[in-house]
Automatic annotation (TrEMBL):
Xref: SUPFAM superfamilies: ISP domain
Domain (Rieske): residue spans on this chain: 8-104
GO molecular function: 2 iron, 2 sulfur cluster binding; metal ion binding
PROSITE patterns: RIESKE (PS51296)
Keywords for this protein: 2Fe-2S, Iron, Iron-sulfur, Metal-binding
Domain of life from the UniProt record: Bacteria
Protein name as annotated: Benzene 1,2-dioxygenase ferredoxin
Lyase recorded as keyword: no
Length: 108
């Protein structure tokens, strides 16, 4: 992988994250889930807002991911909760591609 960008965390190479797949990286203590939805990249916190369970335990289904613990679903493009038991959105993060490497960061 190329040299890291200041403040950005390398996730993986673009050819390692195919459409319909997701990968996780860490920015400090924050686990960030990066999803490839039809070639577009989205990043959100890897934590269900219902009970803090990792969303990455489930497969990506189109632009949605469902928490395997209690079935809350989220739109990975927006972070919005789509059904109970979650009501709060998942925080979203920026994604950047540089020299074939995907980067993200916790910009809160």
């Amino acid at each position: 992988m190329s040299a890291p960008l200041d403040g950005w965390q390398a996730v993986c190479r673009t050819d390692e994250l195919l459409p319909g797949e997701h990968a996780v990286c860490f920015d400090g203590d924050t686990a960030i889930l990066v999803c490839n939805v039809d070639g577009e990249l989205y990043a959100l916190e890897d934590k269900c807002t219902h009970q803090d369970f990792e969303l990455s335990a489930a497969p990506l289904q189109g632009a949605e991911i469902e928490c395997v613990l209690h079935g809350a679903r989220f739109d990975v493009r927006t972070g919005q909760a789509l059904c109970a038991p979650a009501y709060a959105p998942v925080p979203k993060f920026p994604v950047r591609v540089e020299d074939g490497v995907i980067y993200t960061r916790d910009d809160r």
